[in-house]
Amino acid sequence: MKIRIASALAAALMVAAAPAQAQGLGAEANYARANERWGAELGAGYAFGLAGFSLTPGAGVFLRDGGTALYGRIEAAYQLPASLRLGIGARISDEEARPYATVAMPLLPLIAIKGNVGHKYVSAGVTVGF
To answer: Are 98 and 75 in contact (CB under 8 A)?
Structure first.
């Protein structure tokens, strides 16, 4: 009987903890080429996830040669167990959406290096929190 209670408690804790690990607020800093200009992207988003899959809407600012531009993005990704996060996304700026592929490799539990590649868009940087 004690084994059943302990097993049920362990299963309940794993179910309760899994969505909490896959969701959360995060930030990223990238060096990017967008709209034919190089600059820095600073953004934030909130990841909604379950069972390795995540959907992350976000927004930020693109700092380039004396100017700034706002952007929005949305990414759908899958986290391979103890490995890479692979996905697709869309970056919206200047009323134009640019689809891209994304890959992130965790360095620490809440820190990853990340790269995005798409038509007329490329970036590389660090994410913190998601």
So the answer is: no
**Strand (E) positions, the chain?**
24-34, 37-50, 53-64, 67-79, 85-93, 96-108, 111-118, 121-128
Instruction: Give the number of domains in the chain.
Output: 1
> Is 46 a domain residue?
yes
Q: Give dist(CA 63, CA 65) in Å, integer.
A: 7
Range of the domain at 109: 23-128
Residue 125 tokens read as: 């940087």
Percentage of the chain surpassing pLDDT 70? 83
Query: CATH number of the domain that 111 lies in?
Result: 2.40.160.20
Task: Identify whether 55 is part of a domain.
Answer: yes
pTM: 0.79
Which residues lie closer than 8 Å to 44 by C-beta, 6 or more apart? Answer: 25, 26, 27, 28, 58, 59, 60
